[in-house]
Write a structure and sequence with these properties.
With 297 residues, this protein is an all-alpha fold. It has a single domain, classed as MetI-like (MetI-like fold, Orthogonal Bundle). Helices cover 71% and strands 0% of the residues. It has 14 helices and no strands. The longest helix is centred in the N-terminal third of the chain and has 37 residues.
């Protein structure tokens, strides 16, 4: 019997070995190596000497772009994440009905999530919102003055946030799955009690999908804090670094200034920030995330 269990264990290890090798080589090893680099003055093509925590001291005391880039990143996340979740939830509500063409609609609404993070779509977004772009031409047709979407420091961050909101498909699918699991008897009981649509939404629908809201909130927050493509392709951090996200700063330090050690230190600072924010969300979830079995997050 013992040998049989050992054989099963060996077969199990054999089947998961590709994942184990991939995790160790492509995730854990680079993670540990980046931490070592953060303690050195390594360049992109050379191994530097050990400098201890000098890179971290520089981040918090001498880097004039670090705090502004973190501020821009937080503003971006605070705008993009709630807007994306609200749009995804509203679309999921609209899609939550039985119809032969509904599957087609769901596919169409999910497509932006597949294409939205690509470089091609980011370039298209830049052409749409440039001063002589399609958006301003449409506004001009209605007599509305053109807006400098990408050249105005007060507006540019909102423009790149719209691209992320447009990629609501993945969150929408999760919301839709949660809505499908709500028993119809609860809506019937709410109707018997005289509850209207708005009251049913806040007293029945939203409480029952709080686990889905919680998951989407965590995943979208992590993604927003790591955003790079939109800021790099559409505005390149401008104008006046109003869209200079921390992800773009890490890229510039690593591949423009060729300071891999300092870029690694910035990456670890961002990792800690994301970890703390995620833990904070988990901590607050105890008061608003509810499960069917009566448990809480």
């Amino acid at each position: 019997m013992l040998k049989r269990k050992q054989k099963f264990a060996l077969w199990g290890l054999l089947f998961i070995s590709p994942w184990i090798v991939g995790f160790l080589w492509f995730q854990l090893y680079p993670l540990l190596l980046s931490f070592y680099y953060s303690l050195t003055d390594s360049g992109a093509v050379r191994m530097g000497k050990f400098v201890g925590i000098d890179n971290y001291v520089k981040i918090f005391t001498r880097d004039r772009d670090f705090w502004p880039s973190m501020r821009v990143t937080f503003i971006y996340a605070l705008m993009a994440v709630p807007a994306k979740l609200i749009v995804a939830f509203l679309v999921a509500l609209a899609m939550n009905r039985n119809s032969r063409v509904m599957n087609l609609y769901r596919t169409v609404y999910y497509l932006p999530s597949i294409l939205g993070a690509s470089v091609t779509i980011s370039i298209l977004w830049r052409f749409l919102f440039m001063r002589e772009g399609v958006v301003n031409r449409v506004l001009g047709f209605f007599g509305i003055p053109a807006v400098d979407w990408l050249g105005n420091p007060d507006v540019a961050i909102y423009t790149i946030s719209l691209l992320v909101v447009w990629q609501f498909g993945s969150s929408m699918v999760l919301f839709l799955a949660g809505l499908k699991q709500i028993p119809g008897e609860l809506y019937d009981a709410a109707a018997v009690d005289g509850a209207g649509r708005l009251r049913t939404l806040f007293n029945v629908t939203l409480p029952l999908i709080t686990p889905i809201i919680f998951f989407n909130l965590v995943m979208q927050t992590i993604g927003a804090l790591q955003e790079f493509t939109a800021a790099f392709i559409i505005t390149n951090g401008g104008p006046l670094k109003s869209t200079y996200l921390i992800g773009l700063k890490i890229y510039d330090e690593a591949f423009q200034d060729m300071d891999m050690g300092y870029a690694s230190a910035l990456s670890w600072v961002l990792f800690v920030v994301i970890l703390l924010i995620t833990l904070l969300i988990f901590r607050t979830a105890k008061s608003w995330v509810h499960y069917e079995d009566g448990g809480r997050a």
